[in-house]
Every structure is written in C-alpha cells, then in structure tokens.
Amino acid sequence: MNPFVEAIGMLGGGLGFLISIPQLVRVVKHKSQVGVSLGTWLFIMMSTVGWTVYGWRVFSLSQIVTNTVAMVLAITLSYVLMRERFNFGMRVLILAAIAVPTALIVGFAPEWLMDAWLYIALWSRVPQTLESYRSWREARSTMVSLSTYWLSIFSSMAWVVYGLLTDRPVVVWFSVVVTVLSVLVVVFELLAQQAISRRGERTPSA
User: Fold this and answer.
1) Distances in whole angstroms, Cα of residue 136 to Cα of each of 24, 133, 143
2) CB neighbours of 22 closer than 8 A, spacing ≥ 6?
3) Sign of the CA dihedral 180, 27, 82, 88?
4) What does the angle CA 181 – CA 165 – CA 125 come to, to the nearest 5 degrees?
5) Which of the residues 110, 121, 162, 199 has an alpha carbon 20 to 30 A from that of 135?
6) How far apart are CA 53 and CA 108, in angstroms?
C-alpha cells in the first residue's frame, strides 16, 4: 500500500489508541466514574476488536498495529468501569461475550455481515452523548475526559481521509459518525461546566 496512505492510517490510529488513556487516568485518579458511560466504552472495545481483525482481513499494517494497542487500552478501561457493578468472573464473561463474536464475525463472516457489524459499533459514542446531555441539563460535574474526545475527533478525521484515499466507504462513514458524536460529547460537557460555574461550584481538574 502507498506509504503516504499508511502514514495517514498510522496518524489516525496513533491518536485513536491514545483516547482511552486520559479517561482511564481521570477515573483512577479521582476514584469516580460519574457521568462516564460504561456502554460507550464497551462499544469502543467492540469497535477496536473489530477494526483489529479487519486490519488482518485487508492486510493493513496501520490498522493492525494501532487498533491492537487501542483494543488493549479499551478493554482495560472497560474492566475498570465495571469494578463497582460486577465481580471478576462476570467482568471477564462480559468482555469475552463482546470480543469473541466480534472477532469471528469480522474475521470470517461474509463481507456484508462484517460491514453490518462494524456499522453497529460506529454508534459507540451514543450512550456517552446521551449521558453528557443529561449532565448538561442537570448541571452535573462529571469524570468525562474532554481530552479523550478531542483525540477521538482528530483521530476520526484522519480515518476519514484514509478511507477516502483507499476507497473504503465503511471506514469513511464510521469515522464521520464518530466525529459528529464526539463533537456533541465535548459540547454537552462544556455546557455542563458552564452551568456548574454559574452555580458557583468547581469542576474536578483532569
């Protein structure tokens, strides 16, 4: 594949695998996950598993390398977010129940089914978007990391370019939707912070 195109993919993936880190640090640092959607991170984990396997399927080094790292980080964060809700065995079972079918479908199913599964994963930011909207309406201080969603925006924009250059519509549409939803999360969280400031309260530092 064209080295320039792969470089774009590496940029998108490089930014993408970083998205879990600020959120993971914030949750661990403050020992709280208020406002952080577990559903979103389980979807993101499913997405990274799918894109890692997709990279093997289409022989894209940038997708294999970057999404493998992103997958490990997303699994770690999802595990941390489930600590207060489920015991160890249930956490492992939930993660496996999402990862294994995703890998099998994307790796071995007909292309139309693989595309359908990946399109399901593109709605990963919807639960967080709804949660952030709720935080804004309730003027609620949250543990959502804005750095995570800024990284998500820039990563997705790079993947849009990559998808256009490689003529892969599934990559383009996936990345466009993720970009829009990530922007909405940032907007709602900033509005929530403004609402809190008007009440004279302080939001936790990152």
Assistant:
1) 22, 5, 13
2) 145, 147, 148, 151, 206
3) positive
4) 15
5) 121
6) 10
Paired tokens of 20: 């879990």
Mind listing the pLDDT tens digit for each residue in 114-143? Answer: 878 777 777 888 999 999 999 999 999 999
Three-state SS sequence of the chain? CCHHHHHHHHHHHHHHHHCHHHHHHHHHHHCCCCCCCHHHHHHHHHHHHHHHHHHHHHCCHHHHHHHHHHHHHHHHHHHHHCCCCCCHHHHHHHHHHHHHHHHHHHHHCCHHHHHHHHHHHHHHHHHHHHHHHHHHHHCCCCCCCHHHHHHHHHHHHHHHHHHHHHCCHHHHHHHHHHHHHHHHHHHHHHHHHHHHHHCCCCCCCC
Nearest to 82 by CA among 68, 69, 97: 97
Structure tokens that stand for 2 in this block: 């064209």
Counting beta carbons within 10 angstroms of the beta carbon of residue 75, is it exposed (0 to 12), middle (13 to 18) or buried (19 or more)?
buried
Buried residues in 97-111 as b, exposed as e (16+ CB within 10 A): ebbeebbebbeeeee
